[in-house]
User: Fold these one by one.
Assistant:
Number 1:
Amino acid sequence: MQTITLHQQILEYLETQKEKYLNELFELLRFPSISADSQYKDKVIQTAEWLKNHAIELGFDNVQLLPTGGFPVLFGEKIVNPNFPTVIVYGHYDVQPADPLELWESPPFEPTIKEGKIYARGATDDKGQFFMHFKAFELLQNTTGLPCNVKLMIEGEEEVGSPNLGPFLKQYKELFQGDLILVSDTSLIANDIPSITTGLRGLIYLEVEVTGPNRDLHSGTYGGAVYNPINALCQMISQLKNQDGVIQIPHFYDDVIVYSEEERALLAQQPFDLETYKKSLEIDEVFGENGYTTIERTSIRPSLDVNGIWGGYTGEGSKTVLPSKAFAKISMRLVPNQDPDKITHLFTDYFLSIAPKGVKVKVKPHHGGKPVLIPLDSNAYKAASKAMEISFGKTPIPTKGGGSIPIVALFNEILNIPTVLMGFGLDTDALHSPNEHYGIFNFFKGIETIALFHHELKNIHG
Ligand code: BES
Ligand code: MN
Ligand code: MN
């Protein structure tokens, strides 16, 4: 009975605040906080400052922008009672670059509502999602009171691999003591099929450089007699996977957890329609490791992809040139228990070993992160599951996300605190793509669910 009144109270108050909450989110979305592009450095800092002021207005104490080796982390806290559980909210205020700009139907940093969705870079990843926690905090303070202590950890470098957050966590270990880290930066299966992410893939991102002759050559006078580095690179890339989608790096699969038939049967129960999937991507056929379903290929199996490739002449018209250099950016998604450092070595050894004579090869690692597996038997997971059950009217399904949030593994390792990945986006929100969007339904459902989460956690905790 009590929960119903509480839920009702939350919903009624939320109804009166919707316009205000949306307007505030729009203000946040107008900042082009692109962490990857140094031209936007000032904008990223301004975003952090806007958030700092907003956190102060909401009544967080001890609000600060804590310095890191890169962009600052927003900290703030509200300790209502030291005996209450403490929720640490993690999110990221940086966004991916918006290009290609010409494919956006409305400007990426001018949020626009269309068919019930907010279109803007960062709408779902992750501004629209972490901001729900700010608003749930505000809502709780103005209705039931805060049933838990809250701390903020909102960073500005997730989209570039959180390179400074590991050392930061070590430095501020004492400050970030709490019962759990709550993250909304993942997807639901669908708006009527709630889910909680219980695994994320790890990541390795590398750049390779292949050098042939010491300068660009005339492709007539030298062509046919010198190894073209672009051809060499393509041949090498073609040896990374076979026709069955199996990665060819020796020992690559050695540490991959093999799932039992029971666990695979559970994954297969997830609603998924291959025809809709293919149609939405306008492809005739999916491709991946033989013997695995599309869900498995994007959750419990590792993958390898070329993210970009360049070299030689790509300008207007033609230029007959045999280039000196060729480059590619290559990423691998890892699953438990693959280790990023070990796989980086295996890749490098193999890649150098398949280089033909006549070219030189360099492999430069960019960033990486470990895969994570989240147990379902924690209080944190139970509270999230209960909160979603109340707000969606259905028990959420545990899923595994194909993407990566590199810092999550370190929450466990450095802070020794469990994480809950209670995200409200959809995989079809075009995150990292043109026309990124976030459903207004998802934004408000998230605020409602997060408010309920705090109460459920307090109930379980006692
Ligand atoms: N929020 C995403 C990760 C994500 C998206 C997880 C959807 C599950 C479902 C995050 O911001 C992201 O994009 N991570 C990057 C890694 C980073 C090192 C650039 C990724 O997964 O590519
Ligand atoms: Mn994200
Ligand atoms: Mn992202």
Number 2:
Amino acid sequence: MSNTDFVLAVEDLTVSFDGFKAVDKLNMYIDKNELRVVIGPNGAGKTTVLDLICGKTKSTAGSIKFKNRELTKLSEHEIVRAGVGRKFQTPSIYENLSVYQNLEVSYPKGRGVFGSLFFKRSDEVMAQVYKIAKEIMMEDILHTEAALLSHGQKQWLEIGMLLMQEPELLMLDEPVAGMSAKERDQTAELLNRICQNRSVIVIEHDMEFVKKIAHKVTVLHQGKILAEGAMDKVQANEKVIEVYLGH
Ligand code: ADP
Ligand code: MG
């Protein structure tokens, strides 16, 4: 494929596990500052798509271009450095460190040519910690130990740890699972803010939440796209109702 303006262009992406195609010739295009939600029944291949994009799983065939750069040949670390952040279902924060320290340790190491000038770096890091803490609604609890946070706050902290790297594409797998109604609303607001200067892919089951955040929805079923488009259109799609929403 020739160069495009899409942040992410996935083409004919396929992975088979012992002959079973978990993702089957998938095509998906994500715009700059787009918030895309991926829905679909359990086992549809949603998590596997994120695993392929972040390099955790290697594809069998097809291409993943991030800002026109082929990701399928890169390692997980190279993909992070290229600007792709991914949050897994269970939060991986440091429970015995403070909110501040969790954010601080997530600052990319050796960024920029002045990375060795310690005094400059520490100012930069501090400014970035405050900026992100505000974004994730935790500026007033910077010195709280992470172990004491609510389930929702732990999820936000992990999103903040990813934001410390300023990813241009952020991927979140079921971010509101286990959250209270209020935390879900706050997470919707958070995601609406953070997609203002990056693209975001969210896997989610909670349709009330999806409605609040999705620019477009992709419905996966058996590793393939069943439907794609605006939320109301997808919700009215008979095939989607049959395999997913009707249950
Ligand atoms: P979803 O996130 O939509 O629920 P997954 O992407 O987790 O679905 O899984 C899609 C299918 O691929 C499932 O049948 C799952 O068992 C299978 N699968 C996922 N990862 C692997 C793997 N590493 N090895 C073998 N099978 C896998
Ligand atoms: Mg999954």
